[in-house]
Amino acid sequence: MSWQRKINKALVRFTGFQVNRVGNQGITKAAAPAPAKPAEVEIRPPADPAADRLLTAPVFIISPVRSGSTLLRSILNAHSALHAPHELHVRRLRVEFGTTLASKAMAALGHNQADLEHLLWDRVLHRELVRSGKRYIVDKTPANAFAYERLATCWPDARFVFLLRHPASIATSWHEASPDKRTPEEAALDALRYMKAVQRAKSALPGLTVRYEDLSAEPEKVTREICEFLGVEWEAGMLSYGEQTVIQKGLGDWRDKIRTGTVQPGRDLPPEESVPESLKPMCRSWGYLP
Questions:
Q1: DSSP one-letter code for 268
Q2: How far is Cα 290 from Cα 284, in angstroms, rounded to an integer?
Q3: Taking Cα atoms as reference points, which of 96, 111, 135 lies closest to residue 230?
């Protein structure tokens, strides 16, 4: 090997640069190796449910944004056995290993990163439930629709309530929530992401499906169905849920209709000709259009 090549190899090793002939490209940065793609962490159910989970049979309302989930949350929270706080977003809580030794130590105990996250999620929800003094916790975070598989794996005994609403009404309400952030067209497409996620969850998991329009029109009938599904007695106080302090922007609906403390009629269904083309397939899938 010539002395020029030896010098070039040393330069690349210590500086990341190499020398080329002037007529060629001069000094160039050596191509850095592509970073290794992190291995997928296995998502698995609790190895020992009795020891690994404090929470029993949590309830998840799986719904798109602006579908009446805060109304349903408020109604359920008025039940003596159900604690339905603001949106909890536990799926965004992450655990990281600060060192390889920490990773090895946890592996020796049988835990991977997802296992530890599940323990954290369970502990956070269980603490909130214990502080409420009630029997079951209910979480209505709309983004849970994107993590339904993870939730069902974390809590194999979880119950799911799928809350639907006319897709065009969802899109209109989503635009009205922040008209400066998204146009009606953008709102429809963004809300559609949630609707598709809910549809995937609904197709994959057992659960009870309810419609916002039915809940607002016949609240007693629908809440009785929900109570039967959850195995709790129906309570008349659910229909006059009162003002609840956990309602605030960013953690659920904050509109005056929710703040009345009683179930209010929903808006009229949009006529078919006003439904955006992008939403018509979902309208048909959910039975809002023929």
A1: P
A2: 6
A3: 135
Whole-angstrom distance, CA of residue 73 vs CA of residue 71: 5
Per-residue model confidence as pLDDT tens digits over 180-213: 999 999 999 999 999 999 999 999 999 999 999 9
Number of Cβ within a 10 Å radius of residue 98 = 7
244 has a pLDDT exceeding 60: no
Q: Is the pLDDT of residue 224 over 50?
A: yes
The two tokens of residue 127 are 């603490």
Give the contacts of 47 (CB within 8 A, at least 6 positions apart): 110, 115
DSSP string, the chain: --HHHHHHHHHHHHHSEEE--TTTT-EEEPPPPPPPPPPPPPP---SSHHHH----S-EEEE--TTSSHHHHHHHHHTSTTEE--S---GGG-----SSHHHHHHHHHTT--HHHHHHHHHHHHHHHHHHHHT-SEEEE--GGGGGGHHHHHHH-TT-EEEEEE--HHHHHHHHHHH-TTT--HHHHHHHHHHHHHHHHHHHHHS--EEEEHHHHHHSHHHHHHHHHHHHT----GGGGS----TT--TTSS---HHHHTSS--PPPPPPPGGGS-GGGHHHHHHTTS--
- Residue 259 CA, distance from chain mean position: 24
What's residue 249's pLDDT? 47
Counting Cα atoms < 13 Å in the Cβ hemisphere of 78 gives: 20
